[in-house]
Amino acid sequence: MASLATKYRPRTFEQMTEQSLVVSLVKTMCESKTLPNRNFLFIGPAGCGKTTISRIIANELNEGKGEPIELDAASHGSTEDIRQIISQASTFPIGMKYKIFIIDEVHSISSQAFQVFLKTLEEQPAKSIFLFCTTNPEKIPNTILSRVQTFRL
User: Fold this and answer.
1) Which residues is 71 bridged to in the sheet?
2) Judging by beta carbons within 10 Å of its beta carbon (0-12, 13-18, 19+), is residue 63 exposed, middle or buried?
3) Which pLDDT tens digit goes with each residue over 106-137?
4) How many whole angstroms separate alpha carbon 136 and alpha carbon 128?
5) Which of 22, 30, 80, 103 is deepest in the core (most CB within 10 A)?
6) What are phi and psi of 52, to 5 degrees?
7) Distance (Å, rounded) from C-alpha 33 to C-alpha 6?
């Protein structure tokens, strides 16, 4: 049986009852014909809606088709794990508009893995979107922070 938090987790922007400013901004970005920035970082304490907003963005951008690729960096933040993500990002999405990656606890990625990730964030594959979630942005290198659109929840 699913927990209450899972059972009642919002699935659309309209169902979000908190974080109205961030929800409004990302909803407008999703409705735009173009998506100029495709690297997002959501910062906030546990339980504030970072992953939920990321899942809603993935659902909206892909019009309900497919599922985002989710990674918990706390247990999968090695250089090899990031190389696998980069390899997946370079392939074309099948049956959906974008290949969307949600990386939770992104601050747990090793410093070497962040270096591997840097080039991909600079010259992002055409149909890939990265949604990062963290409670500790101070642990993310400035070179990464300068390549993401940041939202504080």
Assistant:
1) 103
2) exposed
3) 999 999 999 999 999 988 888 999 999 999 99
4) 24
5) 103
6) -60, -45
7) 31
pLDDT tens digits for 55-101?
999 999 999 998 999 999 999 999 999 999 999 999 999 899 999 99
Residues 117 and 111: their CA atoms lie apart, in Å, by 10
Cβ contact 58:100 at 8 Å: yes
The model carries a pTM of 0.92
Rounded distance between C-alpha atoms, residue 24 and residue 1, angstroms? 32
Neighbours of 94 (CB within 10 A): 8
Tokens for 59? 């659902």
Overall size of the chain counted in residues: 153
Residue 37: partners with Cβ closer than 8 Å, 6 or more residues away? 148, 149
